[in-house]
């Protein structure tokens, strides 16, 4: 289902750029069966009967031209679960980040229809200040061929070395999706070099939690669908006190008198010692 091997050259490229883009990752024979699930998921029909943790668009309820997002679709659908909890995905994330193991913090199911609007430039790790250490590694898997015209994911090269700043402003559908990025770059005297992720369906891109990224309008006549896994080190713990932001949703999984992240909600995908949650 997934093929990848991280060698020294790929790791060096990731460390230099803050992202790694590869044309082949998911088995292309499996892609249709996953993409076919999107219509049901966004209609509120969940194979497992369990609702995802976040759900910003529902058929018939919301305008058609926004980018549709579900967070933690893996709890609702077995095909999504197979991908975002895959051992090789976890291994690649850990090896690129130099971790001894990785754990799934959250997934995203993203559907940008023709005319679908922007997602603001941001840094993923800025959203997990309720986790120690505050870091992240993201694996972005498009289920359609993606290009600049389709509003693909885009990165600022080397921006993972610029430091982490708290999120600020509108995330979904801002008029100028580069607003925050441009303000940060101006204030800190940084140059912006953009890399568009242009790969066939089944390709992949990995990005560091501090890499600035976002996406523009889908100007094409086709859907742009993607599955995303956001990982943290397998040893990650809940921050004992931080609340606010997405902690409002995810700290409900924190046990009383414990900072442990329960594997039922944040499964371990891979570790050097061979530890993995039986999902
Ligand atoms: O697919 C997109 O446009 C944005 C995805 C994203 O922000 C992420 O995967 O971290």
The amount of beta strand, in percent, is 15-25%
First-to-last CA distance: 16 Å
Q: How many helical elements? A: 7
Query: What is the mean predicted local confidence, pLDDT?
Result: 96
Instruction: Report the CATH architecture.
Output: Sandwich
Radius of gyration: 18 Å
Q: Note the run of SSEs as H and E.
A: HEHHEEHHEEEEEHEEEEEHE
Indicate the CATH class. Mainly Beta
Shape: globular
Strands, total number: 14
Structure overview:
This protein is α+β, with helices and mostly antiparallel strands. It has one domain: Sandwich (Jelly Rolls), CATH 2.60.120. Helices cover about 20% and strands about 25% of the residues. The protein is built from 7 helices and 14 strands. The strands form 3 sheets. Strands 1, 2, 3, 4, 7, 10, 12 and 14 form an 8-stranded antiparallel sheet that branches. The protein is globular. The two termini are about 15 Å apart. The mean pLDDT is about 95. 2-oxoglutaric acid binds next to strand 4, strand 7, strand 11 and strand 12.
Short description:
The chain is of the alpha+beta class.
Which properties best describe this structure?
single chain, 279 residues, alpha+beta, Jelly Rolls, 8-stranded antiparallel beta sheet, 4-stranded antiparallel beta sheet, 7 helices
């Amino acid at each position: 289902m997934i093929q990848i091997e991280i060698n020294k050259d790929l790791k060096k490229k990731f460390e230099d750029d803050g992202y790694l883009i590869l044309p082949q990752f998911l088995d292309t024979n499996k892609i249709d069966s996953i993409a076919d699930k999107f219509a049901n998921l966004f209609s509120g029909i969940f194979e497992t009967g369990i609702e995802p943790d976040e759900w910003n668009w529902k058929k018939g309820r919301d305008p058609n031209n926004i980018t549709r997002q579900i967070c933690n679709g893996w709890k609702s659908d077995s095909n999504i679960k197979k991908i975002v909890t895959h051992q090789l995905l976890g291994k690649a994330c850990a090896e690129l980040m130099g971790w001894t193991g990785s754990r799934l913090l959250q997934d995203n199911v993203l559907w940008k229809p023709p005319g679908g609007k922007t997602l603001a430039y941001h840094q993923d790790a800025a959203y997990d200040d309720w986790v120690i250490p505050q870091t992240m590694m993201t694996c972005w898997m498009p289920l359609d061929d993606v290009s600049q015209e389709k509003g693909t994911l885009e990165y600022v090269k080397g921006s993972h070395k610029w430091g982490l700043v708290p999120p600020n402003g509108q995330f979904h559908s801002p008029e100028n999706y580069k607003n925050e990025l441009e303000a940060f770059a101006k204030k800190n005297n940084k140059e912006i070099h953009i890399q568009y992720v242009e790969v066939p369906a089944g390709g992949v891109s990995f990005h560091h939690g501090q890499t600035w990224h976002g996406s523009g309008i889908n100007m094409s006549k086709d859907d742009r669908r993607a599955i995303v896994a956001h990982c943290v080190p397998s040893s990650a713990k809940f921050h004992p006190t931080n609340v606010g932001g997405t902690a409002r949703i995810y700290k409900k999984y924190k046990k009383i008198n414990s900072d442990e992240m329960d594997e039922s909600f944040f499964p371990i995908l891979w570790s050097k010692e061979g530890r993995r949650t039986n999902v």
